[in-house]
Amino acid sequence: xxxxxxxxxxxxxxxxxxxxxxxxxxxxxxxxxxxxxxxxxxxxxxxxxxxxxxxxxxxxxxxxxxxxxxxxxxxxxxxxxxxxxxxxxxxxxxxxxxxxxxxxxxxxxxxxxxxxxxxxxxxxxxxxxxxxxxxxxxxxxxxxxxxxxxxxxxxxxxxxxxxxxxxxxxxxxxxxxxxxxxxxxxxxxxxxxxxxxxxxxxxxxxxxxxxxxxxxxxxxxxxxxxxxxxxxxxxxxxxxxxxxxxxxxxxxxxxxxxxxxxxxxxxxxxxxxxxxxxxxxxxxxxxxxxxxxxxxxxxxxxxxxxxxxxxxxxxxxxxxxxxxxxxxxxxxxxxxxxxxxxxxxxxxxxxxxxxxxxxxxxxxxxxxxxxxxxxxxxxxxxxxxxxxxxxxxxxxxxxxxxxxxxxxxxxxxxxxxxxxxxxxxxxxxxxxxxxxxxxxxxxxxxxxxxxxxxxxxxxxxxxxxxxxxxxxxxxxxxxxxxxxxxxxxxxxxxxxxxxxxxxxxxxxxxxxxxxxxxxxxxxxxxxxxxxxxxxxxxxxxxxxxxx
Length: 547
What we know:
Mean pLDDT: 76
Largest sheet: 5 strands, antiparallel
Distance between the termini: 67 Å
Shape: globular
Number of strands: 13
Number of helices: 25
């Protein structure tokens, strides 16, 4: 892009002047009205003007408006109402142009592809518009058509954004430095992936495969015969936008349940599958007629490595336990801090910022508060935002904003904490079990309070059943992989060559609080059944020897 626009500077200069002129006049009007015309009508005019400016400036700025439209705690209600219109109430492009793109891309006429198609688009978004159609085989479908000449517009805006990041990034009141350009690069990569509809179709199928056993999540089917890089034909979803709270309630659907499905499915994307939706605004999410959550746009997705997923889960638990030393170590692993940084002065700062948020109540926690406090922290300490995490943070904040728009009293961590605790306690993989051990042991000592806290938090989720988890735990304890845990538990119980009554009492209290005697017997029997007689015989001598 730099090479291209270095030979065509007039295109970039004219675009920059247009952007500065548009927002400059808007800010002047806004300030003038605050001084001399502070009535409601003028506030509404300013909100409409902002939406029109973002629409006129095109896809890049519309994307910014869409993100802001999910933050009722940041945006005034009059502005929020206008920005919500950017989700699917944008002006469509010419109908003949759209049908021409369909025919050229599919190499067939409209009549050959579809039995019926709506004469006008039913929705228009930042990158394309959607028609409702019927295939010759009878399936009702949505036909997504990309806006013409999209790539030149995006390249120009991204070039300007990256140039601005290089020139002015260090002047921002955040310790981002060079990472700001990496964030722009990441955004640019995802934006170009989003305008490749073949890539979007593949993303949809991968997403559907991840949630194939989840009865609460709906993913539309892709019809490849009628899809290309510029046209995507997918299953039509009947439902309500998540901002249509009244319609959702009128249909007998509980908004809290829908929000909880959205948050839980978002956590599954980040911590189980690692493949997450990076643009979950209300225009991309629907409540179906049968009470499920439907995702309909898969252009902006990203993939996390296994180690990153485990470290995120671990860091949430460290946050619950207020172990800021371990949390700082996790920040190093995630790339927010470099390994050569002296973390000793950072730990008290983390405790000050996060301790206030967590120490009071999980109900008072929200991502917006944390990100605001972290902005100040990053200015004073060498924190950096890894490019990939810019999308994750944006996704989390967007989901929280969406939850707040449906239920102002909703607290995202009341769903997130039990989920993360349940993930670590069930320990489906050796890596997760390793993370659990890291959480449960500190300085070589078993942390009973942490285990009790995690079980209590996990049990606050009604879907969590401790019996299968206990069975898995006992199986793990008796396995070769659990040798280290057996040794540490024995050391914790027999420290200084004596059996600690207090520790035994804590174990018995934990067991008696969670299980009835017969349940515990059944757990033990089921666990032992997993091992052959020879296997158990090999384990017991090792345990006795270590004791």
